[in-house]
Amino acid sequence: MYNRDDMICSFCVNDYHLAVMLMPYIYEEKNKGKKVVTFFEKDLTSIALKVFNTNENYWTNEEIFKSIDWSKIEFDKIAKKFENVKDDDIIVIAGKDVFIERMNKLLLNFHINFTILNCYNISDIAKNENFKITEYSKLLNTKGLKEIEKLDLV
Prior knowledge:
globular; Rossmann fold; single chain
């Protein structure tokens, strides 16, 4: 089970931008001893490999990045991945807003504490009138993780 304090969102313009944004975050969380579980709508393996090859941290910490599943989630294997989610894990979901919403609804059934990172394509969100950034407490971008401050709208 997650609450608003454990909700992070990110916005990317393409899959390469997504991988570049996720790498430092995953690296930091893995160094804190956290487990990262991914649910990707598209296969990001080749893109992640390109980013790895330009990242010095990859050469010195290859095992950290190789432990991340960058492949497209197969729906017949979702249950198996959910079984592996434990307290304090980081769950990364990336895809179209409909995919992210569906995965979030499945995660509501878990009675464990975890952090969820929903990664949206900015062009999908621009079309989604129901998206509310107020559901999230933090924003991940290429500069890192930032608190979302309340907007004063008068």
